[in-house]
Write a structure and sequence with these properties.
about 250 residues, alpha+beta, 2 domains, 5-stranded mixed barrel, about 30% helix, about 20% strand
Length: about 250
């Protein structure tokens, strides 16, 4: 988070993108690091200090929630996503407005490369079209109308899912896409975060190291919206070197 070969610490790049999203009240960096907090204050950002015991990014936000403005929607952007555009945040917020039954919104991008499908670091999402809840005049066995551009998340995995019994490279070119890569951004309704500690513990979330599976298991509806391509988090020195090169070349 503090690497600054671009002239700015990595966390500042992420913060600047998040702070420029339209319709947001405030942008905070939640951290347990005094060094990160000092860097954030140095470039004019706001910090909420949390404990080092947080088991996930969501748990850290839940801890910080009482010290945040009373907004109805809280967006969680990972600090190591410096190339996630402000428009992605705006899309996630809009999804919750369009799909009132959803408790959480997230983003996906079409997955077109076999290497990404087989890469555990590229999290896959299994989706189905988002349908509005049936009304009282529609029998329960009849599905509601599809909400265009919105998808309901069925599951997430680091494995190549959905599994193809008869593989063909053409499956990666299907339209609409059959394979989706998850983009690690979440827009939560505040009520979901307030209930986080009371959600049932998940067996799948620690097994795959994917906190969103706790929501799936608890029955919290997650709506997913589509962006053109997945951004790459900065997880390794190689990732950071590639980010610096893109910044210097203006790509």
């Amino acid at each position: 988070m503090l690497l600054a070969e671009t002239g700015r610490p990595l966390v500042e790049h992420t913060w600047r993108n998040a702070a420029s999203a339209r319709g947001t009240l405030a942008t905070f960096v939640a951290t347990d690091s005094d060094e990160i907090a000092a860097a954030v204050r140095g470039f004019g950002g706001d910090v909420v200090m949390t404990s080092s015991e947080a088991a996930s990014g969501t748990a850290r936000i839940v801890e910080a929630l009482p010290r945040m403005p009373t907004a109805d929607v809280i967006v969680n952007v990972q600090g190591d996503e410096p190339e996630l555009p402000a428009s992605a945040i705006e899309t996630a917020i809009d999804l919750l407005a369009r799909c009132p039954e959803a408790g959480v919104a997230t983003l996906v991008a079409p997955l077109r490369l076999r290497d990404d499908l087989d890469d555990p670091a590229a999290v896959k999402a299994v989706l189905t079209p988002w349908r509005r809840e049936p009304t009282a005049i529609r029998p329960p066995h009849r599905a509601g109308p599809v909400e265009p551009g919105c998808w309901r998340a069925i599951s997430f995995s680091r494995a190549p899912v959905p599994y193809a019994r008869d593989w063909s490279d053409g499956l990666l070119a299907a339209e609409p896409p059959l394979y989706w890569q998850h983009v690690g951004l979440y827009a939560y309704r505040r009520t979901v975060l307030e209930a986080w500690d009371s959600l049932p513990e998940s067996r799948l979330a620690p097994h795959e190291s994917l906190e969103q599976l706790r929501l799936i298991e608890a029955g919290v509806p997650i709506v997913a919206g589509v962006i053109g391509h997945a951004t790459r988090g900065i997880d390794t020195p190689k990732d950071y070197a590639a980010f610096v090169a893109r910044q210097r070349s203006g790509v």
